[in-house]
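Blinded run. Sample ID left blank on purpose so nobody reads anything into the name before looking at the predicted structure. Input follows.
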Amino acid sequence: MKAKRSVAILAVSGIAVVSVVAGLDLFSSPGSSAASDPVSGRAEMAVLNSERAQAAKSPTPKAKTAQEQAQEVIQLRNQIEAVEAARKAAQDQSDLRQKAKNTAIARYKALQKTDQNSREERASRDAERKKISGTPKEIAMNLLGDHGWKESQFSCLDSLWTKESRWKVSADNPTSTAYGIPQALPGNRMAAYGSDWRTNPVVQIKWGLDYIDNTYGSPCSAWGHSKAKGWY
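Blinded prediction complete.
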């Protein structure tokens, strides 16, 4: 008598498990005994049914409505705009900080420049005061450089103005209206250099040096003319 064949079908998590009892191969190749065919057919059906059940359990993606798609587009756009706004805000803040730094640097440089200018102006005023301090001859010597003349020109200037006025501020030519150290003719033409031209040696010397520069080019040239002509 043939042994009974039984098939146990166990579904675990949607997967059909076919167990063959008594060592029977349910999926035997053609040529197996005819008695096993009905059982094999039932086993195959059980597997197919299990696959269909598993497929039925997997939900089909639901198509999004136009409204849902539009909402997604809006959300995406909002996200992009938020990122752009944050980036722009960061860059704006950076620009403000840099502007503040530049302003501070410019102010610092301006203060430095003002301080430097003040020091230079004080130094210039001090140097100018030093140049016009001393005796008339010392003042004249100090002012030679303003005309680009070397100190060697002073000997000619000394000879010239010693002859003209003996370096006296109040020298007044009795035969003319010439006046002062350089013997300006008339004396009031020195008023353009200072209202105190009658008593201020600096005013007289500055006028006299400009006259020599514009007319003769140098004190030695003026002295040469005076020796040749008797006047300059």
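Unblinding after everyone has recorded impressions. Residues 7-56 form one domain.
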